[in-house]
Amino acid sequence: MLKRNTKTKQLILDSLKNSKSAVSQDILLKELGDKVDRATIYRALNSFCDDGIAHKILSDDGKYYFAFCVNCSEKAHKHNHYHFRCLSCGKIECIPNEIEVKLPVGYQSVNFNGFISGYCANCS
């Protein structure tokens, strides 16, 4: 559920939902044109992560990408899966298989950032 909803945040969320892959702030800025400014996109994307609507991915190119969450909530935000960036087309995808990382006794995981780069099925 979208907290503190505005028309602008809804526009950004709709773009994120309709994306076929994870998107960066720059991608959304190009897509939305002059409808939304850079700072608003940045704040909205981060609030979506806080609300369990999206998750943030740190790519091997140093940029953050955002993907719409499926089956997540603010209290149960699960995205222990790999992300894949195609070196040819640049598409970033969530690989749906959940990963179980066994940590030593006493350790608690807060974040998982598994990243693979290579060539997607369309480009290989």
From TrEMBL:
Taxonomy of the source species: Bacteria, Pseudomonadati, Bacteroidota, Flavobacteriia, Flavobacteriales
Cofactor: Zn(2+)
Protein name as it appears in the record: Transcriptional regulator
GO terms assigned for molecular function: DNA-binding transcription factor activity; transcription cis-regulatory region binding; zinc ion binding
Keyword Zinc appears in the UniProt entry: yes
CDD domains hit by this protein: Fur_like (cd07153)
Gene3D superfamilies per the UniProt record, alphabetical: Winged helix-like DNA-binding domain superfamily/Winged helix DNA-binding domain
GO biological process terms on file: negative regulation of DNA-templated transcription; regulation of secondary metabolite biosynthetic process
Metal-binding in keyword set: yes
Binding of Zn(2+), residues: C86, C89, C120, C123
Pfam families assigned to the protein according to its UniProt record, in alphabetical order: FUR
Keyword set, alphabetical order: Metal-binding, Zinc
Textual note on the cofactor: Binds 1 zinc ion per subunit.
